[in-house]
Inverse folding.
């Protein structure tokens, strides 16, 4: 992984075998970023995306290996009251199966690069977005 800051944004290149989420969190820790949004494209060799099942207050994981093109990757970084950072990422992947293009998407929990990925991280300016527990839904949400 390598990255460079241009203006307020950070542009990161992830290399073969880098894990996207841990690399984004590493950059944010190194650059003291408590709140940001990010997006990117690239190719992965293994991914885990999850679907949230509200009735069970749990996720169902979907694992996939092979050549997986990142057709959309979007997420955010926010902090708790102790300045610990958390990511929330969704992604969509395409892949070939029996000669047909298939898609897999959802809440991204793991993605390992097969070739490269190019991701822009946009830190929040002049403030911090924090997280709180939402009593109505039981999930953590942004706190302003």
């Amino acid at each position: 992984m390598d990255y460079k800051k241009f203006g307020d944004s950070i542009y990161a290149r992830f290399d073969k075998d880098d894990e996207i989420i841990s690399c984004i969190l590493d950059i944010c820790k190194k650059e003291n970023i408590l709140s940001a949004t990010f997006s990117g494209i690239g190719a992965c060799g293994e991914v885990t995306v999850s679907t949230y099942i509200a009735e069970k207050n749990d996720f169902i994981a979907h694992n996939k290996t092979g050549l997986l093109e990142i057709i959309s990757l979007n997420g955010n970084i926010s902090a708790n009251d102790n300045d610990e950072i958390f990511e929330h990422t969704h992604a969509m992947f395409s892949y070939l199966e029996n000669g047909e293009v298939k898609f897999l998407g959802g809440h991204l929990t793991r993605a390992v690069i097969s070739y490269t990925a190019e991701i822009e991280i946009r830190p929040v300016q002049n403030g911090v977005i924090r997280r709180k527990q939402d009593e109505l839904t039981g999930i953590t949400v942004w706190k302003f």
Remarks:
- The first strand starts at residue 2 and ends at 6.
